[in-house]
Structures are given as C-alpha cells and as structure tokens.
Design goal:
The chain has five helices and eight strands; from the N terminus they run ααααββββββββα. By secondary structure, the protein is of the alpha+beta class. It has an eight-stranded antiparallel beta sheet, with no helix packed on it. A hairpin with a 2-residue loop joins strand 4 and strand 5. Helix 1 packs antiparallel against helix 3, helix 3 packs antiparallel against helix 4 and helix 4 runs antiparallel to helix 5. The longest helix is centred in the last third of the chain and has 28 residues. The chain is elongated, with a radius of gyration of 21 Å. The two termini are 27 Å apart.
Length: 216
Amino acid sequence: MKKYSFGTLIIVILLLIIATILEKIYGTPWVATNIYDSTWFILLWVILTISATIYIFQRQLYKRIVTLILHLSFVVILLGATITHYFGIQGQIHLRTSEESKNIFYNAYYQEKELPFTIQLTDFELIHYPGTTNPMDYVSRVQIADNSTEFTGEISMNNILKYHGYRFYQSSYDTDLKGSILSVYYDPYGIAVTYIGYFLLFVSMTLFLIKKYKSV
C-alpha cells in the first residue's frame, strides 16, 4: 500500500507541474476545465486519498503529526475539487464595445445564467511582441455596475478580475478587435477549500524536508 500511495502522490505532483506549464500556454480556464476540475483528476485524488488513509491506519502513522498533516491535505484537496466540480459555475460571456451592459452568460452546457450585476466592455487592446505581429497579450477593460456601485477593471492573459466571488479570465477576442470573450467562474467555496489543502500539502512537505535535513 505504501508503494501505491507514494506512487500516486508522485503522479499527482508531476501532473501539477505539467498543469502549471500548460497554464502558461493555454491559460487558466483551459487548465481548470481539462485538469483541475475534470472527473479523471478528481478520481486520481480519490485513489490517492483512499490508499493514503489505508496506509496511515495500517502503520498507525496518525500518531505522527507531519504524516497526519500530509494525508489530511489530500482529503481537503479532494473535498475542494469535489465542491468545485459539482457546485461551481463556469461559462463564457461575449462582450462588444458597441453594446450595452450585460448580466447574462452561458455555462458549459450552453444554458443561460444570470450575474447579480452588469458588465460592459469599454475598451479592448491587442498587444504584440515588439517588432512582430504575434499577439503577446490582449486586454479587456470593463465596467461593472452593481446597484449604485460602479467598478472598473482590466482583464488580460495574466490578470484575473475578481468581483464578489466571480472570477473573469481573458479567453478570446473578435477579429475586429471590438469584442472580447471572457471565461466566467463562480466557486467561492471550492477554491478556498482547495487552497487550504494545497497549503497543508506545502507545509507537510516542508516539515518532511526539515526533519530529513536535521537527521542527516
């Protein structure tokens, strides 16, 4: 069981490294949909959590605080991923500079969903690499109206706009450079739980390294 547990952990760590690289290439929405929130990735966490739990009780490792934190992190990450998968909302919204504010977007099943505020595209800019025509970044400048409150912000490849639990990512743009397609995510609980799990994982791995260094 030890081999299965640590073997699965190594696979998960490698996948997280690969996901980080792919995020730089394809963007956060693609990685979130195809890796982090995917059924197969959640299933991998299930296998890791079950095998690690069995190993803990077989060897009575729950008496060791560092080992307990490590395996607890698996459970918390799995819980966060499950919450995101079943209760998180994701979709896309298409904005044009010539159009009025919108509060309707479409989820992954092409169903209409309503935002609790309106959002309008005020400007769009395509930035090229110096001396080339290759796109380096594209920036959407938006204005959000929420009752009597107005909020302005920018969304680019490396900048996420967060507002009241909603996260907006730059996904694509219209060829005439007057429209932008944004990915919309709403998952205030799943993301928070998952981050706590990754924090526990980081703490436990750090403590393992410190313990190993002291024993040398």
